[in-house]
Structures are given as C-alpha cells and as structure tokens.
Amino acid sequence: MDGADEALKRIVERVCLSRDADLIELEVMPDHVHLLVDVDPQYGIHRLIKEIKGLSSRELRQNFPFLKRRLPTLWTNSYFVSTVGGAPLAIVKQYIENQKNV
Length: 102
Hints:
Blueprint: H1 4-18, E1 22-28, E2 33-38, H2 45-63, H3 89-98
C-alpha cells in the first residue's frame, strides 16, 4: 500500500492513546483491519471506531492521493466487533498476527 499501512497504524495508535484505549494488537490487511483493543465502555467501541475511521480517511486520502480513487469513501459504514470474554489474550493476539499469512 505504498506506506499507507504504516501511516494507518500510526493513526490508530494515536487515536487509541488520545482516548486511553489500550491497543493490544493491530494488523492491516489489503481490504480490512484486525484490531484488538481495550476501551472504556463509557466511551464506547463505536465512538473509537468512528474516530479511527474518520481521522484515518481524512489523513490517508490527503497524504496518499491514490486512495482518493477508491469509491465512494475509504471505509464502509460497517464493522465487526466481538468481545473476547475469558479467552486468553495471547491466543487472540496470535490469531490476529497470523492473519497476514492466510
């Protein structure tokens, strides 16, 4: 992605830091992102995702003109969220890390 994936990672890290969300794991795929994050329920995962998508779309499309050709926007309105409950975080992290190899 010509450096856009690294820029996206920095944006996600910055947003998580600004919202006191613990970024545990992050993998950028060609057409989606895997994100394991611990966010305050009072703030809400929906608000964190909205902020990540909004800021990253604006900054990435500004800094990487080839992304402007994606129609109609960089992100869709949808996203998938799941809680990990009692699952060991090491297993979830390993799953996310291994997605690059699938």
